[in-house]
Amino acid sequence: PRIVRELGTSEFCAPCHDQHQTVAQWRATKYAADGIDCIDCHMPYRDGDPSQGRDHTLHGGHDLELVRRAVELQARREGAKLVIEVENVGAGHHFPTDERARAGDVFWRPRGERTWRWAYRFRSPYRDELGVSDTLLPAHETRTIEVADAPPAALEVALFYKLTPYWADPEAPDPESEARLVQRVEVGP
Question: How far apart are the C-alpha atoms of 29 and 36, rounded to whole Å?
Answer without folding.
Answer: 10
